[in-house]
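A student in our group prepared the protein record below, which I am reviewing. What it holds is a sequence and that sequence's fold in token form. My question to you is simply how this chain folds and whether the tokens agree. Do not assume that whoever made the record got everything right. I have pasted the whole thing underneath without changing anything:
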Amino acid sequence: MTPFDFSESAKRLLETGEETIYTTAVARSASEGLHAVAESLGWTYVRKSMRLDHSAFRRVLVVGVATWAPEELKLLDQLARSSPALTIALFDVDQIETQEAILDLLPGATGHFTRTPYIGEYEQGVGTVFQGEEAVKRIKEIAGEAECSGVVRRKKASRYSGQSLRESSSMC
């Protein structure tokens, strides 16, 4: 089971009769459990009316997901597995009630947020905001960068084990 897999708690909701539709049960389980999982990973969970000081972090990724979208929860699993070298602040888009509140979490954004997920990538308070497919692509890039940085660390160590530097670097 992956950190953002809420299928077991969804099954319990169905068994108890609290929910009757599986996808609704998963969304409810994810929405209720998102903060606990985020905090267990060392991420910051952003609740409504909470403010973030983006300049307080050297590098922060602010991520807003729709808990009813399984593919977005899988993206969070990718981030969790890769352990990128940045602070992650996570919010449930359904818990943030207005466009203005989203803009407060994602400074520098323009226009309306219509396609999830939403991400803002900030370095020392200056950032870039993405939504929809652009956000998906950027999250995958960040997760890939983190995975590759692990390979780079192994590459340096493997130089002494007979494996050439060129062979190791091609793993990324």
Observations:
- The beta strands are 44-45, 59-65, 87-92, 118-123, 126-131.
- Confidence is low (pLDDT under 50) at residues 150-172.
- The radius of gyration is 18 Å.
